[in-house]
Amino acid sequence: MGKPNRGELVQGTLDMLILKTLARAPMHGWGIAQSIQQTSEEVLRVEEGSLYPALHRLELDGLIDAEWGHRKTSAARSITA
């Protein structure tokens, strides 16, 4: 087994990071990814291909709620834990 790359998450860690981030404030997916990256001092980077499936899984498990809101420029999805 090779060494994990810098910033690679252990399986299951992403769900915990998402829930911890959402415990602070509701936000959209991009905000979640940015918050995790900033909180980890740029060590962790969550890619869309990992983030959105994890959000969907957490929503199906009833651990988070998502709701659509509308802004002048676009629709936004706000997610809460």
- Apparent shape: globular
- Report the β-strand fraction as a percent range: 5-15%
Helicity level: 40-55%
Overall pLDDT metric? 83
Radius of gyration: 13 Å
Trace the largest sheet across and list its strands: 1-2
The count of β-strands is 2
Tally of individual helices: 3
Secondary structure category: alpha+beta
Tell me about the biggest sheet? 2 strands, antiparallel
Listing every helix as H and every strand as E from the N terminus to the C terminus, the arrangement reads HHHEE
Q: Identify low-pLDDT runs.
A: none
**For the terminal residues, how far apart are their CA atoms?**
35 Å
Features:
81 residues, two-stranded antiparallel sheet, 2 strands, 15% strand
Structure description:
The protein has helices at residues 13-24, 29-39, 48-60, and strands at residues 65-70, 75-80. The longest helix is centred in the middle third of the chain and has 13 residues, at 48-60. It has 3 helices and 2 strands, in the order αααββ. Helix 1 packs across helix 2 (29-39). The model has no long low-confidence stretch (mean pLDDT 83). The protein has a two-stranded antiparallel ribbon with strand order 1-2. The protein is 44% helix and 15% strand. By secondary structure, the protein is α+β, with helices and mostly antiparallel strands.
